[in-house]
Amino acid sequence: MKNIKNFENKKVLVLGLAKSGESAARVLKKLGAIVTVNDGKPFDENPAAQELLSEGIKVITGGHPLDLLEEDFEVMVKNPGIPYENPMVSRALDLNLPIITEVELAYLISDAPIVGITGTNGKTTTTTMIADIFNADKHAAKLSGNIGFPASEVAANATANDSLIMELSSFQLMGIDQFRPKIAVITNIFSAHLDYHGTQDHYEAAKWRIQENMTAEDFLVLNYNQEKLKEMAVNTVASIVPFSTTTQCLDGAYSHDGVIYYKDEQIMQVSELSLPGDHNLENALAAICVAKLSGISNTAIKDVLMTFSGVKHRLQYIGTKSMIKFYNDSKATNILATQKALSGFDNHTLWLLAGGLDRGNSFDALAKDIAGLKGLIVFGETAPKLKALAESLSIPVFNSEDVASAAALAFDQADQGDTVLLSPANASWDQYKTFEQRGDLFIDAFNKLKEN
């Protein structure tokens, strides 16, 4: 960790705790800052605030009093989830108080080079692929950022021999100043988070900030399947490294006639990738670009991509029983996510498990994607809607009580060579606290099947 003097004896307000705020507060204290933490959760219900107070950090909880800003703070470190329209943040802007997010702090203290990954979809999978490839080739990589590991905490413990593989949200990127990754990736850009950003243009501008401090010595890996990113590429000084599944990108990674290439070098067969679907091929191409730019061997790249089981609950391969494969895609909480999952499988040998919270929508948009399914097993509040859709398409459909019984029923109905996919197309809250809980119960059900 660089012992920078940027914050020494400066009053810094950390707004919002969660993991990133807690980490930022501790790092700032080590750097000699005079830290105040402000969090909306009451003190009695706030273990993180209690712990920070015991460490000698000032905490103010239970609300966000505007008069707190009358103190002479020199910097605000804002939780990325707090919108800029928040009264506390808005007032800080009026006072011209610099506002950063914790990833900026991580950059300032990091001895390790940073690979930054952003995009609408595929960030977590691509970030994890890259880290696994680095580590397989004995290039020490540490996951950080939006993937669940506070960037400043990871940076504080990293050395110059490590690499920070950092997932970055648009919320985090809005709060950077000097942040400069050695390699940056934008997996794709679709419409998202408009409730936070207001417009698609603002959302895209936030994502594009990942490259604003990069130079020609740095590399920006972009998805050239998207015209939008091709257009944006002319507005950076970073060295562009493209990837595509539809165009032969001779300056980057691409697939052609079932083969994956980096520039003119053959890396592996598309069929050798462990994760199905065009979206996962795109993720793999992005990861290959980063790996090759970092001097990683083809052997390590291929070994990881042939065995990569996916991020938990995101089209995660969990195993095979009696030659029937099981995949956990519990993170698919909407129709679009399930459509992407289905694109990677042969419907004629696929059993789909779907259902969950009824938000009042129909599932007509899913019709073309589930046509020809070997079977559909439904559960939860939306089971009747999904069953009606399946029956209209002459798809065999079965009711189950929950995800665990759905897994058992699918196994009973499936034949050797079939695949069972949990991709619910619905939120989990009718039966489960989180999609993670739903996915864990599916995994538990599979493990019980394996024991028998």
UniProtKB/TrEMBL annotation:
**What keywords tag this UniProt record?**
ATP-binding, Cell cycle, Cell division, Cell shape, Cell wall biogenesis/degradation, Cytoplasm, Ligase, Nucleotide-binding, Peptidoglycan synthesis
Q: Where is the signal peptide?
A: none
Q: Which residues form the Mur ligase central domain?
A: 117-291
Provide the GO biological process annotations.
Answer: cell division; cell wall organization; peptidoglycan biosynthetic process; regulation of cell shape
Q: Domain of life of the organism in this record?
A: Bacteria
Q: Where does ATP bind?
A: 119-125
- Name the reaction it catalyses: UDP-N-acetyl-alpha-D-muramoyl-L-alanine + D-glutamate + ATP = UDP-N-acetyl-alpha-D-muramoyl-L-alanyl-D-glutamate + ADP + phosphate + H(+)
The chain positions of domain Mur ligase C-terminal read 313-425
- What family name appears in the similarity comment? Belongs to the MurCDEF family.
Purpose: Cell wall formation. Catalyzes the addition of glutamate to the nucleotide precursor UDP-N-acetylmuramoyl-L-alanine (UMA).
Kindly provide the name given to this protein in its UniProt entry: UDP-N-acetylmuramoylalanine--D-glutamate ligase
Specify the species. Answer: Pseudolactococcus plantarum
